[in-house]
Amino acid sequence: MLARVLYRDGLMLIVDKPAGLPVHRGPKGGVSLEDYFDALRFGLPRPPALAHRLDKDTSGCLVLGRHRKALAHLGLLFKHGKVGKTYWAVVEGGPDADEGTVELSLGRLDERRGWWMKPDANGLPSVTTWKVLGRSARASGPEGGDSRAAAPPYAPPHAAESRVAVRHAAPPPPHPGLPAAVPPSPFRGGRSNTDGQPADRTPLTWLALTPVTGRTHQLRVHCAASGWPIVGDNIYGTAQRFTGPPQLLHAREVVVPISKNKAPVRVTAQVPTHMRDWLRACGWNGENPETQ
């Protein structure tokens, strides 16, 4: 974990959390990120603590407060939306436009599902902005025309009461050479790619996602509800629970205005190994600061 420290000052640490490692120890036990906190004291009497959270299968930038006063300050920054967060995701299909916004209130699915969420008109307002950074070759026709087979938005629970504001046009008809799109589900099941590699016949889109609000599972629900679930999402997307590819969601960058007298701290986490082939399929050229 010491090698994963991306930034350190007297107030906070920013670490590159690996995918597959939960930040908290669950009810069934097992290793969690918190087990490593004692090694991240760097001379302070207390270990750091979480200033926010990432899902178990989400990798990338995670902010820790180094002492109580710093943690309280960071908590207010996150609460009031002062911390900038950018995630990279690879999604099935993709939006027709090159950028836009999803506005969809979210509520808890039910008490039995813990943190699982659903679109809910009576839930908390939730906003995500998105921008297309690249598309797979299968997303373009032989003459350069658009031939994406984007999945249509699914009908979530209480869909008639939910408001999904996605600023993009209706997707074009599927290319004859592509399989019929499968609407994503708020539960497990549906289409999957079991070899952990990009599927040749599935159009993919590389997105930059910015959560304006910070609801649980917000990006995953917003992408699925828009018709382009995140690859590997086995709750809201189409991936199988144990045989599908890993979830392709990465906390790429965080910008923290930790000090009033200094410029905000901007930190970037490199793309994890499990996402690289998928991103290359969408036009990513590697960790080149001149092009990314």
Description of the molecule:
- There is one protein chain.
- The protein is mainly beta.
- Helix content is 10%, strand content 24%.
- The protein has three helices and 13 strands.
- The protein has helices spanning 68-79, 218-225, 273-281; strands spanning 5-8, 12-17, 49-50, 59-65, 84-92, 99-103, 106-108, 117-119, 127-135, 165-166, 204-211, 249-256, 265-268.
- The strands form two sheets. Strands 1, 2, 3, 4, 5, 6, 9, 10, 11, 12 and 13 form an eleven-stranded mixed β-sheet that branches.
- The relative contact order is 0.20.
Describe this structure in a few short sentences.
The protein has 292 residues and is mainly beta. It is built from three helices and 13 strands; from the N terminus they run ββββαβββββββαββα.
Keywords for this entry:
about 290 residues; mainly beta; eleven-stranded mixed beta sheet; two-stranded antiparallel ribbon; 3 helices; 13 strands; globular
**H and E string:** EEEEHEEEEEEEHEEH
Number of helices: 3
Distance between the termini: 26 Å
Overall body shape: globular
> How much is the average pLDDT?
80
Proportion of strand residues: 15-25%
Content-based structural category: mainly beta
Q: What portion of residues is helical?
A: under 10%
- Based on DSSP secondary structure assignment, what is the total number of beta strands? 13
Low-confidence stretches: 139-195
Radius of gyration, CA atoms, in whole angstroms: 19 Å
User: Biggest sheet, open or closed, and with what strands and sense?
Assistant: 11 strands, mixed
